[in-house]
Design a protein that fits this description.
Elements: E1 2-9, E2 12-19, H1 21-38, H2 51-57, H3 59-82, E3 86-96, E4 103-111, E5 124-128, H4 134-147, E6 150-153, E7 164-173, E8 176-177, H5 178-181, H6 186-189, E9 190-197, E10 219-225, E11 239-253, H7 259-264, H8 270-304, H9 311-331, H10 336-341, H11 343-370, H12 377-391, H13 395-404, H14 408-426, E12 429-433
Parallel strand pairs: 5-12
Antiparallel strand pairs: 1-2, 2-4, 3-4, 6-11, 7-8, 7-9, 7-11, 10-11
Helix pairs in contact: 1-3, 4-8, 8-14, 9-11, 11-14, 12-13
Length: 435
Amino acid sequence: MAITVEDVGPCRKKLKVEVAADRVAGTRQEVLKEIRKAARIPGFRPGNAPEAMVASRYAKEIDEELRRRLIPEEYRAALQQHQLKVVGYPQVDEVQYQPGQPFVFTAQVDTAPDFQLGDYKNIPVKKKEVVVKDEEVTGMLDTLRDQQADFTTVEGRPLALGDFAVINYSGVVEGKPIAELVPSAKMLGENKDFWIHCEADAFLKGFCEQLVGARPGEKRQVMIDFPADFAQQPLAGKKATYFVDVQAIKEKKLPELSDEFAKKVGAESLAQLQDDLRKGMQAERESEATGEVRKQIVDNLLSRISFELPESLVAQETRGIVYDVVRENTMRGASKEQLEEKKDEIYGFAQKSARDRLRSSFILDAIAEKEKIEVTAEEMEARIAQMAQRYRTTPAKLKAQLAEKDSLGEVEEQVRVSKTLDFLVAHANVETIKP
């Protein structure tokens, strides 16, 4: 086999592979024998037709199978011989073949970039010192108390700010129901058995203040002036009248801080609950601080290590990011027209993000290879168990799903990248910053 390799662009090479005629003839003979066994030719039982007749009648099928076998086999051999690290799939351009002649084909391939890592240890980074204050633990306890609060019905007095009111309401603007004017925001127009915490500017500015003093069963009219820049344009700058029926008044009762309360939320005692909350906040902030250090390390590597990227990978990664950005903005309510107006901005962001992602991926992969960072079976099982908990399934089911989608390699790469970043953090020059 004769192979020539030509550079045709950044991270792109053209391979010309010539397979010797005797090797081609041997493979063609193997294909012919296999086809002959199943060939159905009138007057002959399968497997008994003359080779020459089979070769003539099935010439097209034989040539196609010959290509299917030779190209992948010789392509892999060419990559191994020239130690090419190919990314993506080859683009086979030309195939030249005549019986009795060498088999020649050319393929264009994208290759991994070649670059020098330089020094990747002792990268200077700043890490915030993590401190959890007593008042922050108290705040978390208050949040838990709020989540466990009871609501009691208020009797014998009218509604006051700070209460919760259960109301029915419907609104009109210029005699037309708001629900019809803005059907996409139905809650603005009408609702039943709606719980509202009566505070200043809750729901709509001035709404709750006009309910103060009402008693259960009482009906009130609430006047609202929508601002000129109100998000729902049919209501912007308009005056609205809401017809409100106060169903009930509720008062929130927070549980007392005690061991009994702690047991209710899963701790053995109030002291343990406080300790658990502190440790949880500490761990969360440590993770955030480490994530920021990781980002500083990656930014440092990207600023110092420059190289070209395979454009096919850049295009593929860019498409994926554009899709994610469009989907996310669509879920937030962006219209097709708004997305179209920002298409250049979205594409520019996506392409830059794609290049940064790919460059950091190649750099971290090179460091992992140099430092011989590998992923153990135990680490894979731990990551799958972690993912299964997030997706609310069992590790066994998730592993089977990942294997079916051929995605276990992606999970392994995620673990390897994480281990590589942990290695870089452990060898970084860290300056601790006081809060």
